[in-house]
Amino acid sequence: MKPFKPTLPAKLLQTLPPWRNAPAWHIAFSGGLDSTVLLHLLATLAKTEPLPPLSAIHVHHGLQAAADAWPVHCQAICDSLDVPLKIVRVQVQPGASIERAAREARYQAFAQLTGAGELLLTAQHRDDQAETLLFRLLRGAGVRGLGAMPAQRPLGGGHLLRPLLDISRAELEAYAREHQLAWIEDPSNTDSRFSRNFLRHHVLPLLTDRWPQAVGTLARSAEHLSEAQGLLDELARMDLMAASQPSAFPWLPLPSLSLAALCVLSEARQRNALRYWLAPLTRLPDSDHWAGWNTLRDAKSDAQPLWCLADGQLHRCSGYIWWLPASWSDFSHAPSSWPQPENPLQLPGNGHLHFSGNPPAGLLSIRYRQGGEVMEVPGRGRRDLKRLLNESGLPGFVRGRLPLLYQGQQLLAVPNLPGLAADARGDWQLHWMPPTCDQGLS
């Protein structure tokens, strides 16, 4: 007796229960074989299963003349299945890889259309997974990259789900023939100048001719690597918990880590923890550029080194490493008058100031450092501001945007710093709230 083999609809249903309560399901619908089968499967299941409302999204890249007819085809298919369709036109940015640029434009559109708690379903299958593993292996990817495509991940306000990753292309083709589906054949899919097409049409056929189970084996290897990456992520979270010690400046809304806690780790664990920490902040460096971390870590204690990354900089100061997004320097250096000190003062691109207690009388203004400032410190007389800031340990990258309170030509206070932020009698204290991460600091 032959073992029971679940049908394609049954296999798909097994992947869907965790997502049944989503407010909406969107199907990424190119009109090709894979997405046509997925759309047909879901539209058919919706007739007998209580699924969330279905809709389809077709992204038109405008890269080839043949694509101009595809929205009409997609609309006809969706109308026949009674599924609403949204057609989105995107602008693909020129670059070295048109494949990557088109993919980025497509997923940016998907993210914008995936609302809170909603689900976007895409039709990548097991053959795509094997192809992705080979492609990334040839590019020298690490464990995370070789884990290939995850079955699910956050997207926009909701999630992306790939419910067909355990399904072969042959199974999708058989389903399409059985149900007499019509789909688009993209001419660019036969162009072997594209790396993925070369793998699909030339490399994988050779592999499967020699090893018939090659596609399934490669996809299984991707699963093992994805599992290994999950363990590395767990280790990273453990290491980062030890390194996430509060700094002496809790009011500074920048991600930071204790350098000493990182330095007790092996170099491999340092890189693993930093990759995990930096992933939501910036595009990660390739292997050749990790020497920048060694330079930052090993610099002399009195140095203030930095490591430039794609979307910002990593600084070392006061025993911590700090992440500064590229937007950190985007603020106005112009002075501001403060005619009503009883109300908070908004600083262009630099948060706001406010007083606790009774503000000082007289005309007040805010300036930024120019160098050579002197301040009268209770019990210490006149002191250079530079020396006072050095004593405080305030990171150097903050000092240029530190708002200074003046009354006429007299420097009255430096916010947030003990001994410098209040008057001698304790009538008032100056507080600075720098821009939060939501305002572009990370």
From TrEMBL:
Organism listed in the record: Pseudomonas spelaei
Gene Ontology cellular component annotations, sorted alphabetically: cytoplasm
Pfam families to which the protein is assigned, alphabetical: ATP_bind_3, TilS, TilS_C
SUPFAM superfamilies in the record: Adenine nucleotide alpha hydrolases-like, MesJ substrate recognition domain-like, PheT/TilS domain
Name this polypeptide is given: tRNA(Ile)-lysidine synthase
Reaction it catalyzes: cytidine(34) in tRNA(Ile2) + L-lysine + ATP = lysidine(34) in tRNA(Ile2) + AMP + diphosphate + H(+)
UniProt keyword DNA-binding, yes or no: no
Localization terms from the record: Cytoplasm
Predominant subcellular localization, coarse grouping: cytoplasm
HAMAP family in UniProt: tRNA_Ile_lys_synt
EC number: 6.3.4.19
GO biological process annotation, one example: tRNA modification
Residues involved in ATP binding: S30, G31, G32, L33, D34, S35
Positions of the Lysidine-tRNA(Ile) synthetase C-terminal domain: 364-432
